[in-house]
Amino acid sequence: MKFLLLIHNNLEALKGLGEDELTELAGGREQVAATARELLKTGELVSVLGLQEPGTEKDIQLVAGTPVISDRPLLETKEYLAGAIVVHCASVERALELAALIPLAKFRRVELREIRLDQDDFFAELDDL
User: Fold this and answer.
1) Pairwise CA distance, residues 22 & 14, whole Å
2) How much is the pLDDT for 87?
3) What percent of the residues of the chain are helix, what percent strand, and what percent coil, each to the nearest 5?
4) Which of 109, 83, 86, 104 lies closest to 17 in space, CA to CA?
5) How far apart are CA 119 and CA 47, in angstroms?
6) 2-10 and 110-114: which strand pairing?
7) CB within 10 Å: which end of the chain, N or C, has fewer?
8) What phi and psi, each to the nearest 5 degrees, are found at residue 98?
9) pLDDT score of 57
10) Taking a C-beta distance cutoff of 8 angstroms, is the pair 75, 8 a contact?
11) Distance between CA atoms of 16 and 69, rounded to whole angstroms?
12) Which residues pair with 66 in a beta bridge?
């Protein structure tokens, strides 16, 4: 089973923190690296994504067949999606254990979603079409 761990953050809560404080809040480089290495060895870590803070995003929508691109704030909320991790493990319970290893889970919400279709599944379906 594959799961997407969505890591949420809050810009207001981060204001005034220096680079070292932000690194420690994220668990420290050494601890994060050690955890990542262990999960790579077990085959459970598939992918890690860190996203830019809000303010640089764009969205696109087709309106009457014409692409309309916007760079306005997409959500009226203080919380935003900061990153994601894809894990491959045997159960929801194990995925929750892995989510709890994310240092920011002590302060922020980590959302767990099962992946119903990944790139391997998608590419295999393309061959059948």
Assistant:
1) 8
2) 97
3) 35, 30, 30
4) 104
5) 12
6) antiparallel
7) C
8) -65, -40
9) 80
10) no
11) 32
12) 63
CA-based angle 90:120:80, to the nearest 5?
75
Strands 45-50 and 2-10: unpaired
10 Å Cβ neighbour count for 6?
17
Beta bridge partners of 61: 68
Residues in Cβ contact with 70 at an 8 Å cutoff, skipping those fewer than 6 apart: 58, 59, 60, 61
Q: What's residue 76's pLDDT?
A: 60
- Locus of tokens 């953050």: 9
pLDDT in tens, the chain (129 residues): 999 999 988 877 777 788 787 777 777 788 888 999 999 999 999 999 988 877 778 888 899 999 988 876 665 667 788 899 999 999 999 999 999 998 888 888 899 999 999 988 899 889 887
Is residue 92 within 8 Å of 1, Cβ to Cβ?
yes
Cβ pair 99, 67 in contact under 8 A: no
Q: What are phi and psi of 117, to 5 degrees?
A: -150, 125
